[in-house]
Amino acid sequence: MNSLYLARRVFLDEATTMEVVEEMKRCHAAAAPVYGGEKPGGAVNPYIRKVSRLAIAPEISERIKALLMQEKDQLARHFGVELTHCEEPQFLRYETGDFFVMHQDGNTPMVHDHTRFRKVSVSVYLSQQGEPSAPGTYGGGELVLYSHYSAPGERVFEPRGTLVAFRSETTHEVLPITHGERYVIVTWFRSDEPKV
Fold first, then answer.
1. Shortest CA distance to 89 belongs to which of 117, 46, 57?
2. Is residue 64 within a helix (H) or strand (E), and if so which, with residue range?
3. What phi, psi does 23 have (nearest 5°)?
4. Contact predicate 92/54, CB 8 Å
5. Distance of alpha carbon 177 from alpha carbon 95, whole angstroms
6. Alpha carbons within 13 A on the beta-carbon side of 140
7. What are the Fe2OG dioxygenase domain coordinates in residue numbering (predicted)?
8. What are the phi and psi torsion angles at 22 (to 5°)?
9. In the structure, what pLDDT confidence band is assigned to residue 1 with cuts at 50, 70 and 90?
10. Where are the domains positioned within the chain?
11. Which residues are paired to 140 by β-bridges?
């Protein structure tokens, strides 16, 4: 068992993973915002977070969210927290040069917006790392988790279809993509009541 994260391999089977990626390739893309500022919906800042958020079909988003909710109790037990629901999943595409600097997702006294209720962060890997000559792979773009600022980070290498979960107060980053495209789904499990 890893102390910084939980990996659930084959969270999505190969067929579902490929179906979601093919749908994501057809979706409209817009720059993903950064949360924590004065704007409730966040603001785009390409010096902090450079990645595209994809407008996926609602039925795919709902299907993925239902699968994520099936993991809620196991995640709550593993991390020793109470979880009520997860946010709407974000479907993201990182291209060459894209990144997300060191940050925390929530569950820290330094945060005073809606993200303070985030307890567990989740990434679902949809792409495979590989050499530049390997079709459909990407390079760089590792998720790096830090136990504290002065410690070296732990790079997370997992196969596509894997769900990776970690506490939302964990400092982490996504390193710049060196080649290819990295497709990923992210969401956050929360402790507050869902908004209707």
1. 57
2. helix 58-69
3. -65, -40
4. yes
5. 6
6. 16
7. 85-191
8. -60, -40
9. very low
10. 6-190
11. 177
Query: How distant, in Å, are the alpha carbons of 20, 23, 32, 62 from that of 107?
Result: 30, 32, 21, 25
Dist. CA 79–CA 5, nearest whole Å: 9
Question: 62: Cβ–Cβ under 8 A, 6 or more apart, which residues?
Answer: none
- Report yes or no: 116 and 107 within 8 Å, Cβ to Cβ: yes
Residue 45 CB neighbour total at 10 angstroms: 14
64 in Cβ contact with 82 (< 8 Å): no
CA dihedral 122, 40, 48, 105 (to 10 degrees): -30
- Spatial neighbors of 177 by CB under 8 A, at least 6 apart, are 94, 95, 96, 97, 98, 99, 138, 139, 140, 141
Place of tokens 């497709």: 183
- The DSSP annotation for 81-108 comes to ----EEPPPEEEEE-TT-EEEEE--S-S
**What is the model's pTM?**
0.93
Tokens 């109470």 appear where? Answer: 82
The model's pLDDT over 88-122, given as tens digits with 9 standing for 90+, comes to 999 999 999 999 999 999 887 766 677 889 999 99
- Evaluate whether the domain defined by 6-190 bears CATH number 2.60.40.10: no
CB 156 within 8 A of CB 5: yes
pLDDT band at 194 (very low <50, low <70, confident <90, very high): confident
Token pair listed for 171: 């400092």
| Tokens 């060459």, residue located | 96
β-pairing, 128-129 with 137-140?
Answer: parallel
